[in-house]
Design brief:
heterodimer; A: 0% strand; B: 334 residues; 14 helices
Chain lengths: 177, 334
């Protein structure tokens, strides 16, 4: 168990590090897929395979692919310089990261976790499904509202594409034919 | 002897052995399908196909493998070497790993995941990443074009592919592939293909698009972009890409059989073979693979806009409508 955890943690952290410091945007995106896969592995370790599968499906299979797609359509993949990567915001970034790490470590150490062990919560897929369709009870209606807003965003995206699309040019008169 | 077999049936040995079996199965499926593909192509085009190596060309896969092993592995000088070399692996692993949840016979499944179907679709979606890696890593315009087409096609057809599974999930009430097969017991009229015929059609078409075969082979498109994302590959890396394509074709046939054609269930109950029910599974899977090859050598390639129209304007609405019909039917009947 410990060995698996170490392997997954190394994979996630090294990939995340690769996302930040790699010189090519495409490499960053690929490293990000590795980090997502590592997180999916953590979900499996926590006895939540459904969450892991959804993580792989959405983040590796859709988000990363769309990002790569966007990069390749819009710009020539080219190497950045390290000076561009390590710009003057690097120290501010360090401070913020260290602060968040300190808060997280504090919470994890101070919280009394009692006898909790992973995988003992209500993580049934059936229950998740009921929450997603809003029949799980009064507070769970938020799941349905969240989905409704995502549909709204989708409609907005499609509308934006339709509005911004160029009209097909009128066939110009050409002599001869 | 019995104690030894029992010890092998425990974890982790059971998993290790069955996983090795899966890898061997995947590679052999790919090798045999290359031969079958050429033979079927030959007979459809009124010629023999490979018939020199062994009896009627039966040793052709072995000859191919030896040839590919001794061939030099050439990478373009400007290629992004690590991405270039990792791409075939990223394509092959998903095609091999999904076999783990396919039930071959009663209780003969590597891991009976209770989210089997979700595992199938999520692992299939990694394949698009491999295609993009191959296209980008080769540093060639044709490769990049092929990869972009491939990625667009694969993420478009994933939507109808997943939607077409939902009807089966509603009828079964479970995401486990073993449960899906168990529910279809008792003769061929209980198979889901009858109640889910539109979903079967959608899944069949979307699975052809997902494995990038004719008529959806725009990412390869020999006549326009000479081979798409696999132009620059040679030797074993090329063989790996081909193996993963044929393996995913076999895999899609196996999933089709499991979901819609009753898996290992015999067509009539008195034909039940007990532990040898994998014969039924293989027969049905082979039949589906043959239809895929039949399609490949019979129809021309789609245009890009036709491809997108078919996916988004026909398959997605059709599967949504039939999903509603299935849900309403389940609600009314019980």
């Amino acid at each position: 168990m410990i060995a698996v955890f170490v392997v997954l943690a190394c994979m996630t952290l090294l990939s995340a590090f690769g996302v930040v410091i790699s010189r090519s945007v495409v490499h960053s995106a690929l490293f990000m897929a590795g980090a997502f896969l590592g997180v999916a592995g953590f979900y499996v370790m926590l006895h939540s395979p459904a969450l892991a599968a959804l993580q792989v499906l959405i983040y590796v299979g859709a988000v990363t692919v769309v990002i790569l797609f966007g990069i390749m359509f819009t710009q020539k993949p080219q190497a950045r310089r390290f000076r561009v990567i390590l710009n003057r915001q690097v120290w501010g970034g360090f401070v913020v990261a260290a602060g968040i790490a300190a808060i997280l470590i504090y919470v994890f150490l101070e919280q009394d976790w009692g006898g909790t062990s992973p995988g003992h919560g209500p993580r049934l897929v059936a229950q998740l499904g009921r929450i997603l369709v809003g029949t799980g009870g009064a507070p769970q209606i938020f799941g349905l509202l969240f989905e409704g807003s995502s549909v709204l965003l989708l409609v907005a995206t499609v509308a934006a594409i339709v509005i911004s699309r160029r009209r097909p040019e009128q066939p110009t008169e050409r002599g001869g034919e | 002897m019995g104690a030894f077999v029992n010890a092998l049936d425990q974890e982790p040995w059971r998993f290790i052995i069955s996983f090795l079996v899966i890898i061997v199965l995947t590679l052999n499926t790919a090798a045999i399908l290359t031969l079958a593909e050429r033979k079927v192509a030959g007979y459809i085009q009124l010629r023999y196909g490979p018939n020199r190596t062994g009896f009627r060309g039966i040793l052709q896969p072995a000859a191919d493998v030896i040839k590919l092993f001794v061939k030099e592995n050439v990478a373009p000088g400007r290629a992004d070497r690590w991405v270039f070399l990792a791409a075939p692996i990223a394509m092959f692993i998903p095609a091999a790993v999904i076999w783990m949840v396919v039930p071959f016979a009663p209780k003969a499944v590597v891991t009976n995941l209770n989210i089997g179907l979700l595992f199938v679709v999520s692992t299939t979606s990694i394949g698009a990443l491999g295609v993009i890696m191959a296209g980008y890593g080769s540093h060639s315009n044709f490769s990049l074009l092929g990869a972009l087409r491939g990625a667009a096609q694969m993420i478009s057809y994933e939507v109808p592919l997943i939607l077409s599974l939902l009807g089966t999930i509603i009828l079964t009430g479970s995401l486990s592939l073993s449960d899906v097969v168990d529910k279809q017991a008792g003769g061929f009229w209980h198979w889901y293909i009858w109640s889910q015929l539109p979903m079967f059609a959608v899944f069949y078409i979307a699975s052809i698009a997902e494995v990038k075969r004719v008529p959806f082979d725009l990412p390869e498109g020999e006549s326009e972009i000479v081979g798409g994302y696999q132009i620059e590959y040679s030797g074993m890396t090329w063989a790996m890409i081909q193996a993963s394509e044929f393996a995913s074709m076999g895999l899609m046939s196996a999933i089709t059989v499991t979901l819609f054609l009753g898996g290992w269930q015999p067509p009539f109950e008195f034909l039940d073979l007990g532990n040898f029910d994998w014969i039924w599974f293989s027969l049905k899977a082979a039949l589906v693979m043959f239809t895929l090859q039949w399609v490949r050598w019979s129809v021309p390639r789609f245009r890009m806009d036709q491809l997108m129209d078919l996916g988004w304007k026909v398959l997605v609405p059709l599967s949504l409508v039939w999903l509603l019909v299935t849900a309403a039917g389940t609600l009314i009947v019980g």
